[in-house]
Specification:
The protein is an alpha/beta fold. The protein has one domain. It has a 4-stranded mixed β-sheet. It is globular and about 40 Å long.
Length: about 180
């Protein structure tokens, strides 16, 4: 059974001054999908290497004006396993912060990161979305369920759920016998 991962918006302070960002050591790779944690960078690299769907998402974000920071952290007091927590924009760049609960199995963690990267790609498709308010407005239009109906700020899209499922299928395909 698929657990629903929701997209949660929180009003965040504009920018995070002094926050160090560690990027992959490979020049030009993952300049727009980042983390301050090496194990998250390793997960992103592994997802990129093992899953064509994950790779496509990273490449879409690489061509955008969005910078995504993926961090290990809980969402909604641990009630949900991943969330998009902030969207800010300035100087022609948009910054998206994603939290992912690291207490998941390895492949599920990669698929969960892909799920949230799909949400970032959805925002990247809409240049008018540069803050939490505009992001929530977008998700009121494209989300399913209570968010779409205006009853919740926890939003989910069919595309993100499908992305997660496809990435899991790609990751598990290596275990299938020919």
């Amino acid at each position: 059974m698929w657990a629903i991962v929701v997209l949660t918006f929180a009003i965040a302070a504009a920018g995070r001054a002094g926050e160090a960002t560690v990027v992959d050591d490979t020049p030009g790779l993952f300049t727009r999908v980042r983390s301050t944690q090496r194990f998250m960078i390793a997960l992103i690299r592994e997802g990129y290497d093992r899953s064509p769907v994950f790779r496509d998402l990273v490449e879409v974000l690489q061509r955008s004006n969005v910078i995504v920071l993926v961090q290990p952290a809980s969402c909604a007091g641990g009630r949900i396993r991943s969330c998009l927590v902030s969207v800010t924009g300035f100087d022609g760049q948009r910054h998206i912060r994603i939290n992912v609960d690291p207490h998941r199995s390895h492949d599920w963690l990669i698929a969960t990161v892909a799920h949230e990267l799909q949400h970032a790609a959805e925002i990247a498709e809409h240049p008018e979305v540069a803050d939490a308010s505009a992001a929530l407005k977008l998700y009121r239009m494209i989300a399913v369920g209570q968010c779409h109906e205006g009853l919740s700020e926890e939003c989910e899209t069919t595309r993100a759920l499908m992305t997660e499922r496809k990435v899991l299928e790609e990751l598990y395909a290596r275990f299938e016998k020919p």
